[in-house]
Amino acid sequence: MPTLVVIPGDGIGLEVIPAAVRVLQTAIPGLEIIEKEAGWGCFQKHGISVPADTLEAIRSVKAALFGAVSSPAYKVEGYRSAIITLRQELDLYANLRPVHSLPRVSPRPGVDLIIVRENTEGLYAGRERRDGDTAIAERVITREASRHIAEKTFQLARSLHRRRVTIVHKANILPITDGLFRDTVRAVGAAFIAAHGLFVEIDELLVDVAAYRLAAEPESLDMIVTTNLFGDILSDEAAAWGGGMGLAPSINLGDSLTLAEPVHGSAPDIAGKGIANPIASILSAALLARHAWDLPDVASAIEKSVEACLNQGIGATPRAALLPGETERITRAVIDHLK
Questions:
Q1: Which is the catalytic residue, given 208, 294, 297, 336?
Q2: Which domains does the chain have, with CATH numbers?
Q3: Which of 110, 231, 251, 297 is 20 to 30 A from 177 in CA distance terms?
């Protein structure tokens, strides 16, 4: 029976993550839960954003569901981003963001794409320094990390029945770093296709062209693989086609570990009011079923239940019009459709 580490985090994470857990426990009777801490509130209590026992629990059970966390907008001595810590300490080197049109909330039908983002290096490697009035950040691209993300991307393309992988880069301006990334992904992809007899097309776009395509014709894109910062920005842009950041799910993948997380923030302005929409957390839980436990039927059942609720207008209400009890109403409706 699967076991899941649950990290509610801060703000509305304390409301939407328990909602997603209830949905998972309905879909997977007997699912075991281990609750752990991480985030800004954890740092304020314990002086560390991700305690060692949280990392150890995830390594032990292999799967985690991580909620929204707050972060200070200024440098706090000793504080390190919880999600970056989790990704780097657990070698969760791939971030998967599916985007597809949802009933009532998506501004356009027919969008169905996946963005795979390298998760451990690039400008997020944390190599920053100050020299007087000059601040410098180093962008780190390695062949090893590029190979890892390429292998994961083409494994996903095979299992998810994708037909085109687009490498997004800026090698015309950054020929050494992005050139290494592009060339490594191309070589790994070609070898994977040959070894497995796949029919998967490989193409490439400059990041600015990819941003335009995502805004103007998202239906033309199937699966994108890109570097850390580009992936962060493009996946947030693409989320508009799935109903916005507040409904966007994601999952972080390593070789044996998985950590799912809704994309939205901790929303302190509405925390504790019972009005936060749990759909992003519920869809992230569905990604766990598919990618952590190889339960595609469970994942599809959860996703179809969410779509059924949205078709009924449940979960599709604009945030400004939400009333207390909305979190519970949506959660119960998804569970009812699962039964």
A1: 208
A2: 1-92+245-339 (3.40.718.10), 107-242 (3.40.718.10)
A3: 251
